[in-house]
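Example record used in the benchmark description.
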Amino acid sequence: MTNYQFPEGFLWGGATAANQLEGAYLEGGKGMNLADVMPGGKVRLNVISKPGFDFKIDHDKHTYPNHDGIDFYHRYAEDIALFAEMGFKTYRMSIAWSRIFPKGDELEPNEDGLAFYDRVFDECLKHKIEPVVTISHYEMPLYLITEYGGWRNREVITFFERYATTLFNRYKEKVKYWLTFNEINGATHLPIMSLGFSPATEDVRLQESFQGLHHQFVASSLAVKACHEIIPGSQIGCMLIYMPVYSYDCNPQNVLHAMKEEQVFNFICGDVHVRGEYPAFSKRFFKENGISIEMEEGDLDTLKKYPVDFISLSYYMSRTEKKELTAEEKASGNLIAGVKNPHLEASDWGWEIDPTGLRIGLNQLYDRYRVPLFIVENGLGAYDTVEEDGSINDDYRINYLREHIKAIGESIEDGVEVMGYTAWGCIDLVSMSTGEMSKRYGLIYVDKHDDGSGTLERRKKKSFYWYQNVIESNGAKLD
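Model output (structure tokens):
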């Protein structure tokens, strides 16, 4: 197709996370969280995923770019005005849990933290930008990690329910779209990010991860219940990192292997959130992997009674699988390796680029669940160059976004119900995976660098003006 018809009211916008842009990590009564102890640089994932990570800051060995971010905490009005100039209909953001409950287990919230987000939401609404708020986005209070063991501990359900209910009561007149846990299905591969613990050994990773996930499933359902009761007419969704899984070839063994990988990664969390029950295939998977989930009476009833209203997702890449592969065949740049796909190009960081995979994924999700879908993360991390005249000509980013938006248009024509699209890192921020500023996603350039230098000046990239036209035309002008 060449003329895409996006529905009236389609939610165009951009997305960020509190821990990656706010900075001010000890201001306003905020407590320490996971992101505050994550080192910067390409060593990040290697350091935090190894057993024995001590969740402490070591300035002699590492830098900590999340402490400063891009200073959104003080510059939010300027940034939101730029979002409005681009034409944003919506802004997907997160709240830092430890700004509201500094330790996580307090009975009363921190007023300074609540007031900060009041100001952010007021600024959004002043510009007619609808906030979409992630309740938990890789920023669990550090105290809940070190003292409670993260989501392995069922008691954290109570703390999360108190936190979520506090948000709903405070912002019920300002926010009607909510997401519970960011990229919840990625937890089994890197539990430290969303479950708040690093397994002692690989042998216990799946057992502890699925136990933690069960606690999050219950917490999510309780949040759905509270959200609907406190904010009539609100919508609350789950958030998946979605990767269609391809078989390397038509060898039935590889096809079966790819199917199993896709079931576990893409569908267990979706089934629990939307269908309100664990899928049939999970019983065999749990048995074969020695996973035994402790549940309390009433858990399964809670999951069934309070499913999410929609699915939101991040999409960056597809994944190609082969039952037996050599080290040379691995696609090392991808978040979850798989096999190198010879038909795809890759980004500067080795992430394979596959716009068609987004169309495949949207069709898969809608065929399975028949609930609205919302792409809340999609973008290209790349090196940007500021020209002598101050311009940033990021045609590579425009091409990436254009092809993925076309895939969404094709999916809508296929019959998929899509609510909106928010480009990830609409303003440059600290990369989650590598802790770098040089891995830039933004349509707005921020003068901040990996060594901490920079003026924090904001500049509009070429993609800023391109996306402005996309939004103004409701997706009709993509060239």
